[in-house]
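Table 4 source record.
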Amino acid sequence: VLLGAAIRLYGLDAQSLWYDETFSVAHSGRTLAELFDVLKRDVVHPPLHYLVLHGWFQVVGFGAQQARLVSAIFGTLSIPLLFLLARRFAGSSASLVAALLLAVSQIAVYFSQEARPYAQVQFLSLLTALAFFSFLQQPNFRRSVLFFGSSAALIYTHYFGAGTLLALGVYWLIYRRDYSPIIFRRLAAVVVLLALAYVPWIVAVRSAGRLTQERLVSTSR
């Protein structure tokens, strides 16, 4: 973990912001109302990462290095999470190797030094997987809530987070006979709640898209 943190923090501000990072930093520094308006019209960016940046800027100040530090923190925290996830399937030696590979992974370090949501998605994907396997082991209310919360945070960070949830669903389908039948009902309840939790964002994006289209038509006329 210390090795991964050192690699991610080294040269964190060595390069200037590129276009996508500029989008993250500039808009996250706006007021919440302005930020949501931009994200709804932009469509391709769910809001959670930008809300995290917005709150972070209030605490540590505004700037490129501060924004990249958020990704470096998420990237570093992913290393012990991968170790814990790997321990569910392998011994401690193999799990340590997995964590080491993530610590020095070129692409993982790259995303951990960028003011974009990908390191946060990585962290939340691992957290969601851990919560899922904990839920399968003992599907009580607390673990159900943890799985729901991490899943909701994941898909509100990036649309591709749904791929992680799909993969976990496929795992359960393959190995469902190894687990209690009660899991299906609770898992279905979590899926329904996730869909309901995502409805406000879908409605907001559609409303913003319709308004933008009306403005374009008006301008054209």
